[in-house]
Design brief:
The chain is α+β, with helices and mostly antiparallel strands and about 200 residues long. It has 2 domains: about 30 residues; about 160 residues, no CATH class. Helix content is about 30%, strand content about 30%. The strands form 2 sheets. The chain has a 6-stranded mixed beta sheet, with helices on one face. A 4-stranded antiparallel beta sheet has the order 4-3-6-7, covered by helices on one side. Strand 6 and strand 7 form a beta hairpin. The relative contact order is 0.19.
Length: about 200
């Protein structure tokens, strides 16, 4: 009897150890770093532009550090992230879809205004086969605090080594799925749909 109990305890320990080893592997997925980005030591001042909107996408956690997530604006690749990094891109005024691809597609539809800065946090979560992602609004203060932390990298998109944009069919499907979600559950994307950005920080 004592041997049976000891064997069960040993089995549970081995199972727990296996699951702890498996979790980071699932989050790492097919990572390899943002190959279409260039790390920059000098960080620009984040400030509004009179004729454009400015979008800052920040991944503030080291969870799933090596997982690379592609980010698009209306289907065009604008940057990639890994754990603890951020990038900045200029956006023409008007309504645009910001999308990110991991195991899932994450979408934020924002009405960008010239002279405004928009901060999006890129979350990362456990998926079935690899990591999943999602967008949430961040305050300017919290973003600046997070990106100032040691170990957070600043990247720019490498126009000399660009990545692939979304296909027209993929972009159409992602938009349709998003609009269906908004119609069925208006509160689900409320924070990004109503996001007004900030004019100065």
């Amino acid at each position: 009897m004592k041997q049976d109990i000891a064997a069960k305890k040993s089995h549970k320990k081995h199972l727990l150890g296996f699951l702890l080893l498996l979790a980071p592997i699932l989050l790492i997925g097919c990572g390899g770093g943002p190959k279409h980005m260039i790390q920059q030591e000098q960080r620009p001042q984040i400030k509004a532009k009179s004729d454009k909107a400015v979008l800052v996408i920040a991944r503030t956690t080291s969870v799933g550090f090596a997982v690379t997530i592609e980010n698009y604006l209306d289907g065009k690749l604008i940057g990639q992230t890994k754990g603890k990094c951020y990038f900045i891109t200029e956006v023409a005024p008007g309504q645009h879809y910001v999308t990110a691809h991991a195991e899932n597609w994450a979408v934020a539809r924002i009405n960008f205004e010239a002279g405004k800065i928009y901060f999006l946090n890129q979350g990362i979560f456990m998926g079935i086969w690899m990591a999943r992602t999602g967008f949430s609004v961040m305050s300017a203060e919290e973003t600046l605090k997070q990106i100032a932390e040691s170990g957070t990298d600043y990247y720019v998109y490498n126009n000399q080594k660009p990545g692939e944009d979304m296909s027209a069919d993929d972009f159409k499907g992602v938009k349709e799925d998003f609009e269906k979600e908004v119609k069925e559950d208006p509160g689900r994307h409320k924070d990004t749909l109503e996001y007004k950005g900030v004019s100065k920080i």
